Every structure is written in C-alpha cells, then in structure tokens.
Amino acid sequence: MEHPALSALRDLLKASPQLKYQITIQDWQTDFLRFYQSQTNYNISKDNLLFNVTLYDGKKSFSFGLDNPTPKQILQAYQNAVSLLPRLPEDPDFVDVESDQSSKPIRQKPNNISILTLQRKIDLLHTLSAAAEPLGFDLFGTFICNSSQLRIINSNGIDKHMQNNPIYFEVKAVNRNNQVTVLQVFGGEDVRLFDERGFQEELIAKMHYALGDITDIEPGEYEVILAPRCIAEYMMYLSGSMTARSIDQKNSWFEGKRHQQVFPAAISIWDNPEDPQLITYDYNSEGHIYNKLPLVEHGIFRNFMCNNYYSHKTGLPNNGNVGACLVLEPGDKSLQALIGSVKYGLYISSLHYMNFINMKETSVTGLTRDGTFLIENGKITKVVNSLRFTEKLNRIFEHIVALENRSYTIPFSENYEFFDIESAKAPHVLVRDFNITSSTHTI
User: Fold this and answer.
1) DSSP E strand boundaries for 37-104
2) How is the chain split into domains, by residue range?
3) How far apart are CA 163 and CA 113, in angstroms?
4) With b meaning 16 or more CB within 10 Å and e meaning fewer, what string describes 44-78?
C-alpha cells in the first residue's frame, strides 16, 4: 500500500501539470553501537522515512525535505513551495529531470541489522578486548548497520527502487601507557566476507608495532607505504576532479587530459557499483542507471563522471556515475615485500583533518593519525608522532612505484544524521618522495 503522504503529494501534482518534479523516498533503519574503554557505551536503533521533493516551474526550482510526513505536512510544504517558486531566480542551464528509463532487476539483500544482532556484536567486542588486554590496550569504536529502501519518482515517468544494507565496523585500540592508537575497519554489505580471525590478527599486529619507542622525524621527502585507508581517501578526494561539475566550475586537474597518460601504467581506477565487496548501487540519486566505469585505465585518464544536469550543461555524456564505489586495482607485491624494500621511510595507517588547498592543482594538507611508524632497513622499528603533510594528489599517484597484490574494502562514515556509509577498495601502495612538512610532536 502506498504511503498516505505520497498519495497526497501525487494528488497535488496532478492538479499542477505544468510542474516537473523529482521525489525521493528513503525508508531508513539504523543500529548504532558505540563502545568505550572496551565496554559497550550505548546502542541506538532508529527508523525514519524521509521525503525529499524538488519542484520545477520552467527553469525555477524549490526543494524541501520532511521526516515521517503526514498528508497535512506534505500539503503545507507543497503550498509553501508553490508560493515561493515565482519569486525565485531562474537557472538558465536547467533543461529537464532525468529521463533514462533503463533499469536493473531489484536485488533483495539480507538485512544486516537482523543478522548482526546486538549480542553478536557484544560477543565480538569481548573477544577482541580479551586479545588486546595482555598488550595493555583499550578498545574504542563503532559498529553501524543500516538498511535503506530508496524509491525515486519523477515527472518523466521514472519510478525506481534500490536497496542498500551497509556495514561499518571500526575499532581503535589505545595503548594505556603511551596513548599510541591503531585502527582496524571492516565495511561493505556482505557480512559473509567478514573474517573475524583475520580482523583480530591484523589489529593485534598493529598493536605490537605500537609498543615501540616514540620518535620524531625531520621535514622532508620520504619513501612512504600508504595503508589502503590512506590511498582510498586520496583517491576519493581526487575523484572530485573527475566530474563534469568540476569541469563546469573550472577546477578540474583532468581538464584536457582525456585519453592521455597521467599516471604510471600500473594505476587503474574504476567506479564500480557492482563490486560485491563494496556497498553496491543500482542507480544514482536522479534515477539514472549506475554501471561500472573506467576512470583511469593503465595510467590513462578515460572518463568524467556526469549526471543529467551537467550533461546538458557541459555536453559530456550522462553516465550516472558519482564516485561512490571507487576501486584502485591491486599490483603484484606482498605487503612484506613493500616494507622490505624501504631502507628508511614511513608506514602511514590513517589520515586526519585533510583539506584542499587548491582543488585545480589537487593540493591538500592534513595530518597522519592512528599509527605512523618508522621503517628502517625493511622493518617497522618505532612509532612516529603524528605528522603534517602538504602534497598534490596527482603527484602522489604519479609517484606510486609498487602496489600490494591484494585489496581491502574501506568504509567511511560521516556519523551524522543518517550515519551515511560509503566504501572504496584499495591495496597498500609504495610512494616515493612523499612530502612531510612538520611533526606535531604529539601522538
């Protein structure tokens, strides 16, 4: 049965046939567990139904959103929008809402909220805490499971459905003696891919590294092994320059570089919403079908990601890609071989507080976090205080000299409002001449 608020909205739109519209309805559930000092801190379970509506009168538009709306609230919001529309400026570049009618079969995905019960999460936390205790570490973190049913409806006849069930599990281990932190994460949609034993072993290995002496290093350029979380985050930032929107705003480093060699031949980057190890998608937020797209292929830049609006504005093809499923293809070296090849350098586990200095130039600055280690003669020897870096993203990828032979799914969560979760996939990479600008002199 159709939701009463949607029925009320349809009746209002029938009475105003001159209006174009897009309606997005998200039926969203979350189960959010936080733990503190190896103990569960609180658990939040929440259900929400969110309506987002955009109305177009010619080239003028107005959007509104409502949580769990009643028909009366829909009427009030609609009347307010219609009264404001004539007073708004036109967007000369608006042509039409999405018209792509192609669709994918509706995929029924298991609800991870019911699979990963609170008791199962608590048992996992107790197992990890027991393993961490002899090393003197407390565990902090979050375990989030979402379930989202998305429906996209517009005035061009689109009525499409999509389901997502993302998982985000993050454990931060904190050494009680020196406050050194290390991080381990798991994410995706398929809980069958969660290797509990492997997760624990990798976390414990990082804890052993964190028991070393703490040191500082001088500013300069270093050989650096970037953990998958780091290179995935750099890739996500760089992908903003691979969009039609960035072309329109004149801040794309890739402008004029299509089908040119921009990175080493070992670098291939895809936007792949069908990768079963990631959070998968059928459509973008406009209802356009979302397919696998090569962005960088053997170092050659191939495509800009483009939606309906910017396709009309820039003339680039509307491929529906949004960069929510980025994959950096692995290489042919083991992690041990990467570490063993470094005479004097760094292993960087995670990044913090990264911001663009200049998007067109891809220059960013930020801090290392949650486990930065010194590599001497092919071995991790000491803990390094958190460092500040200033780099150009294109330069980082240009300076990748080796990639690990396996990939890891890395989840990212904003932990705001709907605890939105995205994922990317990447291996460890070895980068030469990475620019460290200063030490924070603190962990």
Assistant:
1) 39-57, 60-67
2) 4-209, 214-439
3) 14
4) eeeeebbbebbbbbeebbbebebeebebeebbebb
> For residue 153, how many other CB atoms are within 10 A of its CB?
20
Longest dimension (CA), the chain: 75
Across-strand partners of 128?
none
Nearest Cα to Cα of residue 187 among 280, 250, 119: 280
Alpha carbons 74 and 64: distance in angstroms, whole number: 10
The 10s digit of each residue's pLDDT in 314-358 is: 999 999 999 999 999 999 999 999 999 999 999 999 999 999 999
CA distances (Å), origin 302, targets 218, 242, 245, 259? 39, 10, 16, 5
Q: What pTM did the predictor assign?
A: 0.95
For residue 197, is pLDDT > 70? yes
Q: For the stretch 296-331, what's the b/e string if a residue is b when 16 or more beta carbons lie within 10 angstroms of its beta carbon?
A: bbebbbbbbbbbbbbbbbbebebbbbbbbbbbbbbb
Architecture of domain 4-209: 2-Layer Sandwich (3.30)
Could you tell me which of 244, 325, 317, 340 has the C-alpha nearest to residue 282? 325
Per-residue confidence (pLDDT) for residue 296, from 0 to 100:
98
With a CB cutoff of 8 Å and minimum separation 6, the contacts of 73 are 5, 66
The tokens for 239 are 């992908």
